[in-house]
Amino acid sequence: QSQLVESGGGLVQPGGSLNLSCASSGFNSNYYAMAWFRQAPGKEREGVACISANGGYRNYADSVKGRFAISRDNAKNTMYLQMNTLEPEDTAVYYCAALFKLFGDCSTEESRYDNWGQGTPVTVSS
Predict the structure, then answer these.
(1) What's the rounded Cα separation, in Å, for the pair 57 and 105?
(2) How far apart are CA 61 and CA 26, in angstroms?
(3) For the segment 32-48, what is each residue's pLDDT rounded down to a tens digit?
(4) Which residues, in sequence order, are bridge partners of residue 68?
């Protein structure tokens, strides 16, 4: 059974950093493009960043460009999101997702993903 498990969320002060992890099991994630999404209280879920299957293509939402970095270690079946200079507006539950797409780029369109984790909460507050 395919499974994605996020970890690394927590409470951090504005300007601080967190590194989220997404561990996959039950399927070969090397064949999958992957992405991070987030859902803030009272808001719709939005795409944050995505990375292609081989890691060669990455894309970011404008709101996180220059502050967040997505990466993956296919040998460990794990994807990461390094979040720096965090702002209160980054407070949300962060989800990872996987899309079967061996070649080409990636997407932050939520409707294209059919494998989801349960999320890890991130709170940015002083």
Answers:
(1) 6
(2) 29
(3) 999 999 999 999 999 99
(4) 83
Q: Which residue has tokens 């409470």? A: 11
Structure tokens at 103: 């070649």
Among positive and negative, which fits the CA dihedral 16, 63, 115, 91?
positive
- Beta-carbon neighbour count of residue 14 at 10 Å? 13
pLDDT for 27 beyond 90: no
Q: Is the dihedral of CA 103, 109, 115, 119 positive or negative?
A: positive
Pairing of strands 46-51, 68-73: unpaired
What does the alpha-carbon distance between residue 109 and residue 119 come to, in Å, rounded to a whole number? 17
- Whether the CB-CB separation of 52 and 105 falls below 8 Å is answered with yes
